[in-house]
Structures are given as C-alpha cells and as structure tokens.
Write a structure and sequence with these properties.
Strand 55 (about 800-810) and strand 56 (about 815-820) form a beta hairpin. Among the domains are: about 1-35 and about 370-405 and about 415-460, no CATH class; about 470-545, Immunoglobulins (Immunoglobulin-like, Sandwich); about 555-740, Cytochrome c-like domain (Cytochrome Bc1 Complex, Chain D, domain 2); about 745-865, Galactose-binding domain-like (Jelly Rolls, Sandwich), CATH 2.60.120. Helix 4 (about 615-620) packs across helix 7 and helix 6 (about 655-665) packs across helix 7. Strands 10, 11, 12, 13, 14 and 18 form a six-stranded mixed β-sheet that branches. Strands 49, 51, 52, 54, 57 and 59 form a six-stranded antiparallel β-sheet that branches. A five-stranded mixed β-sheet has the order 32-38-37-34-35, with no helix packed on it. It is mainly β. It is built from seven helices and 59 strands. Keywords: Heme, Iron, Metal-binding, Signal. InterPro entries: 6-blade_b-propeller_TolB-like (IPR011042), CBM6 (IPR005084), Cellulose-bd_IV (IPR006584), Cyt_c-like_dom (IPR009056), Cyt_c-like_dom_sf (IPR036909), Galactose-bd-like_sf (IPR008979), Glc/Sorbosone_DH (IPR012938), Ig-like_fold (IPR013783). It comes from Rudanella paleaurantiibacter. This is Carbohydrate-binding protein.
C-alpha cells in the first residue's frame, strides 16, 4: 500500500513538470494581424467565452469586436474624469458573463462628493442597446490635482474573486526620484506613506473582493488583514504598491502577477538609497511589497528629513515601520516582499536580457496549453506554464519559465523581430490565441499607430511570403519593365511556389518568377504577383507602374570646385531643369536647399527625403523620448519646438548644451511643470545626449531654402556643405541633384579605397594611414580637380626617403605632383599640382628611394589639404 501511495505521489508530481525542453517554435510561425487601428488611448481588454473582444479607451469608450467578422461596435461612451492619469482604466467580465451579462468598470468619477474626488468600481449590465443597471460597488477617495499613479487594472480569479489595482496617488517629482515620504505639513500629496504604506487606505494596493448578486461585495478569507482588525482595510490583498498598472491571475495556481512602474532616480545614492527600478511581481499569498520604503529586491531607502535634508539609516525590510504623520493605519507593517523580476534604466545586473531605456513594466497572462485542447490555433506546448510580461516603454514582450513551485527559472524574449508599439494589455482567447492592445507612440494622445492586434500561431503549413521588384517603375510609353519575384519565399523547406502575374488587369500574363512586360499606353498600372505553395496557401504583393511620364533631370551648375569649399567664400550657382513633359519647367516646383552637416553625418536620408536627418533626431526616434514629447504639440512634456523657442537666444551656447544633456541623463523636473518629472537616461552616452539637445535647439534655425539661382556664403570652417536641388514634375515624379562639399583640409583616413595601407587608430585623434610597402596607395573617389593648385600633407617618416605621388584615375595614372618624404616626425610638406579639370579618382602612391619599409619603419600620413 505504501509503495502504491508513493507511486501515485510521483505520478502526481510529474503532472506539474513544465515541458521546458520542448523545442522553441520558429518565429516565422507567428503572424501579427491588425483588427482595429482606430483607437483613442486603449487601456484594458477582456474576452468572453465566445471569443468576442471587449476593450476600453481612457476617454470613456467601451468597444466590442467580433474577430470572426471584424465588425466593431461602440457599446457606450461613459462620462468619466479623464484628467491626469485618471479616466476609464479597468475592465473585467463577470465569470458568469454568458448568462448574467455583467461587466465591471473602474474609472474616475467626474462629480466630486462633498468636494472629494474618487475613482469608482461599478457593475453594469450589457444589453443589446448598451449598458444599464449601474451599481457603484466601491469608491477609492483620492487627491485630484498634482498627483500621479492611478493604476486601475481588474481581474477575476478562478474562485470568483475580483482583484483591483490602485496607485499611490502621490506626486513623485520632489523626491529626486527616490522614496516619496515627505510628511511635512501641507505636503500630503508628496507622501506615499499616507497611501501605499498605510494599512487603513485603499490606495497603492491590490484589493481582493467577492462580488455578490445584489452588487455588494464580501471579503474573501485570507486577505492581508482579517475583517475587524483595527486601523486596517479588509479589502487589501497586497500593499506597498506604487503604480501596479496591469495585473493578471494565474488561472491554475491562483498566483497574482503585476507590473510595478517604478521611480525615476537614475543612479544609487549613498545618502538616499537605490536608483529606480521597475518590477514584475508575484504574490502567492497576501503581503506587503515595500513601497515607498523599498524597491526591487527589497533595496532599502534611507530615512530622510525633507526639511533639513539630512539622511538617516536605511529602512529594515524585515521590520518596516510607518511613522508618517499622515498615516492612519498601523505603525508596524508586514515584512516587505522582494520583487519577482526587477530592472533599472541602465542594464540590469540580474536580468541583462531586458536591455536599457525607459521603463513601464506590465504583467500578462500565464499560458496553459491544456486549457485549449480542441483548438488548432492554440499556442504550442513550449509556452506551457510561462508568464508573459511586457514593457510599455521598451516595446518588448518576454516570457518567464517557472519551476513547479512558481520560482523563476529563466526569461526569454518573445518574437524579438516583431515590433510592438507600446503594448498596454494582452489576453489569451478561448481558442488559445494571443490578443494585444497597443497604446501607440504618445502618452495621453489619440495615436494613429494605436491598435488591437492578434498574434497568430500556425503550427502546420505556413503562408508563403510574396515580394515583388522591377528594374523601373516610371517612364514614357512604350515602357519595357523587367519584373522579379525571386525574393519571395516559403518558410516550409521544400515547398515549390507557383507564380501568377497581373499587369494592371485581371488577365494572367505570365507564370514565370521574373517576366518582362511592355506597357504601350500611358497610365498607372497596379501590377501584382500571386504566389501559391503546394498546399494551396497564397500570398500577394503589388507594385504600381506609371507609364507616360519621364522623371525630370536636375543639375546644379556650381561656379566653384564641386568637391571642396573654402571658409568664408561665396559661390554663384544655377539649377537647371530638363523635363520631357513639363515644357517649360514650373519654377514653383523647384526646391533648393543648403545644409551644413557635422562631419560624418550621412546624406542617405537627405537624398531619400529631401531633408537632413541629424544624428540627434535619429537618437530621439530610437529612444523613449517620443512617449512624452512631440515635435509641435504638448504631450506629457513640452514639444520640441517649444523647447527650442525657449532657449533660442542661447542656441549655440556650449554650456547650455552640456546642462541640458546632463538633465536628459540624470532626469529632472520643475522647469515646465511641477506635475511631471523627466525620467533619467543613465544608459545614454554624454555625446549622444548632446546630439539630441543640438537637434532640438536647431529647430529654430533659419530655413535652408534657396532660390533656383543665386549666390551662397559658406561661412563654417569644418563639417560638410550639401546643396540639394529637387524638382517634382506635374506628373508627380521627382528628380534631384546633390552636391556635397568638403573642407579643403581633410583626414587621410577618409580615403574610400586602399592597397597595402592600414588605418591606424589615433589616441583621441583621427586615424592616420600607415603605408606598409613600396607602391602602396590610398584613393579618394570622384574628386573634382578643377581649380586645385596645390596639395599639402602632414606626415611622419621614420628613416624613409622617397615621395608620395599624386596621380589621377589609376595608381600609375597621370602624375599631378609629388610630396617629398624625408626622415622626420610631424612634417608638413607641399607640392604644386598640374592643372586638371573635372571629377577624377585621386591616388596617393608611395615611391621609395631608400630606408626600407618594415614593421618598425612605416610611413604615416595624417591629413591632406588642397589649395584652391
């Protein structure tokens, strides 16, 4: 009998072992499908047992969408207080929604009672005409002005208990990004011990209640404080939260998960305590999770007197106390619990895979494949028992593999090649498909990139990928075009593809992968290729071809050298336009611009868009700055243009650039508003932050636009000048000419080609070129030699004698001049140049007379300077 019991216990234990060694499915088996892209601040998502989607928008809208038909319906537009971080925040469907049609909403009550504002939890009944039978279940009184953190997520557990997260309702912007527990008189809104650390307050908590049929609620057994405990609220399940924005319940274990949006300090302080961390938390039972006395894995803040600015001892997570004069609850608090996963702005020592950047942690569902046994669309067993968690700011989704007891095993990025635009909620449907709400780029804005999407998994044959290309897409009739679909492919190895081509009509013209077709009549043709795999799955790609209009020819006639410019020089120019159809060319369609670019800035973006793309702009677009700032409109923070206007008189002040760069890295507030603090960005390099500042300040610079004919002044000594001329003809085709001018003095290491020459990195200086053999050379492509009179160079020769020959077109091409090479360091040598006009490849070739180049004797060429 004992042996039988032991065997049964072993079998039962095996049932809980996760298949963590199941092969990971290839990312190509997942597809992102957009269901709704007309959303205004989407917040939370719920799915009924028929797979119907319900989702809310912060402005008060409740929507319904049937994913089988794609039909969307706005159920209701509630009157809510959508100011600050409040609004329509939480949504949950009753466990018996299929029969009772009850749903629960958490939102800002627009009408104060006795001067007191509150967020409310209310139950509604869904009818064919909308919402009815509202019953207010719970009010969370709060401060209204100058505070942050409302949270507001709702979730049911398997026992019918409803969880509600609430924020600390505190202003974090005058605590330097550390623990906000300023309890001086008149500073109530700056003290999170009044809320999160207060056992007698509903804010900064995760509450657990059991709704009753009449709209009231009871207290489930096992909350943090038994009913009747003095100075406590029995609804509290978890306390010590800052902004538990999104919560989830493990449907099998009952464990509670939530993402905790953390404080802003970018660095640890010996006086104040740890830098800010976001957290993903797990509560297997009720507990205190530490805020505002602890963060992360119980990293303690120090006691701090906000009046004298004197710091004391760190708080003790085993025996936390709340001595705030604003505390109405217990002084001695339950022991603080560690975060499950935690990470700062910079790289996390414990979880480096999470990367760096802004932080807004959120917790999603735990997936169990066995919950969807009959669904062909369920996710694979590889994800069984894994927690999905995500970050709104960083735009990623991770999974956490768990041990049978719930401990963390490992984390892994989910679909790293797929982009998620600020995910704000996610849920699995009854078919085991993952749905994600994407909030969009900017906080508190109706974003054009907000969306409700489904991430589909295809276990069997995958749809092929269709791609189309052509050697030309515009031109006059007759136009012969070579098409290609050779970049199309199928993820399933061995699948042969069938091609069908449609050249502007319904008639199939070819079944080859790379056909040619001649368009004989003017017009715009939408050409398509349809590819079909062996299983019959199809995909299409399309490409428009415009016939009847030739692109215009644009040429900048420059009355100076087309490769180099001299500082403080003036040059005349004319832009010529030749267009086959526009006769004459329309002067209003000509755009000419002069740009001064920092050294090293690429012109690829300029050529593609007609506008420069400074490095600072690129860095901003790759950062989390766009979540709180926009170019020309107020968001959480001021617009870039408003910042540029404010500092316009000091635009070129290096001290201002340094100060603002430091503020980006360290974080700060108080200049534009008292209600919001800019997050720290300690992961940024100082020069990158400076590039971002310089770009923002440049937004008030004068327009670079020029007339089609005129004279320009080239006043800058360094960097590059670019003249860009564009013409858009009446048929919409664009032609352009780009002229890039370099300073007369340039680095030898700028050479585009080299032979038996090595680039030697300088110690804080530009690289130099080391000639390693006789006859070795470097080359500069397409240099305009018109008007070049001389060439000077900076070089060092350790015991070598010879010459650097300046030749055109080839290493043995026409000799233009010779730079003498004699023993010595840091020499400046020069030569006159034989006159030659037009663009030529310029070679600098070493010819040795004596000395013998070897490992210790290498000719070093640092810079070159042409004389105009």
């Amino acid at each position: 009998m004992k042996k039988l019991l032991l065997l049964l216990s072993l079998v039962a234990g095996l049932a809980f072992i996760r298949p963590i060694d199941t092969p990971r499915p290839d990312d190509s088996r997942f597809t992102k499908v957009v269901l709704d892209n007309d959303l205004n601040e989407p917040m939370e998502l719920a799915i009924d047992n028929q797979g119907i989607l319900y989702y809310i928008e912060r402005v008060g809208t409740l929507n319904r969408l049937d994913p089988r038909t794609g039909q969307k319906k706005q159920i209701a537009k509630l009157a809510v207080r959508a100011t600050g971080e409040d609004g329509l925040l939480g949504l949950a469907l009753d466990p018996n929604f299929a029969t009772n049609r009850w749903l629960y909403l958490y939102y800002g009550d627009p009408t104060p009672r006795n001067g007191e504002y509150a967020n409310v939890l209310a139950r509604f009944e869904l009818t064919p005409t909308g919402l009815t039978n509202r019953i207010e279940m719970l009010r969370v009184p709060l401060l209204h002005e100058g505070v942050s953190h409302s949270a507001g997520s709702l979730a049911f557990d398997k026992d019918g208990n409803l969880f509600l997260s609430t924020g600390d309702n505190t202003n974090p912007f005058e605590s330097d990004g550390f623990g906000p527990f300023d309890d001086r008189p008149g500073r109530l809104r700056f003290d999170a011990l009044k809320s999160s650390g207060n056992t007698n307050d509903l804010r900064g908590k995760i509450l657990r209640i059991r709704p009753q049929p009449d709209g009231s609620y009871t207290i489930p057994t096992g909350n943090l404080f038994p009913p009747g405990t003095p100075q406590t609220r029995p609804e509290i399940y978890v306390m010590g939260c800052r902004n538990p924005f999104r919560i989830a319940i493990d449907s099998h274990t009952g464990f509670l998960y939530w993402g905790e949006v953390g404080p802003d300090a970018g660095n640890d302080s010996l006086r104040r305590g740890p830098r800010g961390h976001d957290e993903v938390n797990q509560a297997r039972k009720p507990g205190n999770f530490g805020w505002p006395l602890f963060v992360g894995n119980n990293k303690p803040y120090h006691q701090f007197d906000f009046e004298t600015k004197q710091a004391g001892a760190p708080f003790d997570p085993a025996r936390p106390v709340n001595r705030s004069r604003n505390n109405t609850g217990l002084t001695e608090l339950p022991p603080a619990q560690s975060a499950f996963i935690w990470y700062p702005y910079a790289e996390s020592p414990e979880f480096p895979a999470l990367g760096t950047g802004g932080r807004n942690a959120m917790a999603g569902p735990v997936y169990y494949a066995q919950d969807y046994p009959a669904s062909p669309r369920r996710y694979p067993a590889y994800f069984d028992g894994k927690l999905f968690f995500y970050d709104w700011m960083r735009g990623w989704i991770f999974t956490a593999a768990l041990h049978p007891n719930g401990d963390l095993n490992r984390i892994e990025r989910f679909l790293p090649q797929m982009s998620f635009n600020h995910p704000v909620d996610m849920a699995f449907s009854p078919q085991g498909e993952l749905y994600v709400l994407e909030y969009g780029s900017y906080w508190r804005a109706k974003n054009t990139d907000a969306a409700l999407v489904r991430i589909e998994f295809n276990e069997g044959n995958r749809t092929p990928i269709a791609r189309i290309g052509a050697d030309k897409t515009v031109g006059a009739a007759p136009l012969r075009v070579q098409f290609s679909a050779r970049e199309s492919f199928d993820h399933d190895a061995g699948d042969s593809l069938r091609y069908e081509w449609f050249f502007g009509g319904k008639t199939v013209q070819s079944r080859q992968p790379n056909p040619t077709f001649t368009f004989t009549k003017p017009g715009t043709y939408l050409c398509r290729v349809r590819i079909t795999d062996r299983q019959g799955l199809q995909a299409e790609a399309q490409l428009p071809v415009r016939v009847g209009n030739e692109p215009p020819m644009v040429q900048v006639l420059w009355k100076g050298n087309r490769s180099f410019f001299a500082p403080n020089s003036q040059v005349d120019y004319t832009v010529n336009i030749a267009d086959r159809e526009d006769r004459p060319a329309d002067p209003k369609r000509v755009a000419v611009a002069l740009y001064h670019l920092p050294e090293g800035e690429d012109v690829a973006g300029l050529m593609a868009t007609g506008q420069r793309t400074p490095k600072g702009k690129t860095l901003i677009e790759q950062s989390d700055c766009r979540a709180c700032h926009a170019l020309n409109q107020q968001s959480v923070g001021p617009s870039w243009q408003a910042i540029a206007r404010r500092y316009e008189p000091q635009r070129t002040d290096t001290k201002l650039v340094a100060s603002l760069s430091n503020k980006i890295i360290q974080g700060g507030g108080g200049i534009w508003t008292k209600d919001h603090m800019m997050s720290a960005h300690p992961q940024l390099l100082g020069e990158d932050a400076a590039e971002m500042v310089r770009y923002i300040l440049s937004l008030t610079e004068p327009s670079p636009n020029l007339p089609a004919k005129g004279r320009v002044s080239l006043t800058q000594p360094g960097g590059n000048y670019v003249v860009l001329a564009r013409y858009v003809d009446r048929g919409g085709l664009t032609g352009q000419d780009l002229l890039r001018l370099y300073p007369t003095r340039f680095n030898a290491a700028d050479a585009q080609r080299l032979d038996r020459v090595a680039r030697r990195n300088g110690n804080g200086a530009p690289s130099s070129m080391n000639y390693n053999e006789k006859g070795s050379w470097i080359a500069f492509d397409k240099v305009d030699l018109t008007g070049l009179k001389s060439l000077k160079a900076g070089l060092s020769s350790p015991g070598l004698t010879g010459a650097l020959e300046i030749r055109a077109d080839r290493p043995d091409g026409p000799l233009l001049g010779q730079l003498a090479v004699v023993p010595g360091s840091n020499q400046q040598v020069s030569t006159a140049l034989t006159p030659m006009s037009g663009p030529h490849d310029l070679y600098v070739v070493y010819r040795e007379e004596s000395g013998g180049i070897n490992i210790w004797k290498r000719l070093e060429l640092r810079w070159l300077e042409v004389g105009l």
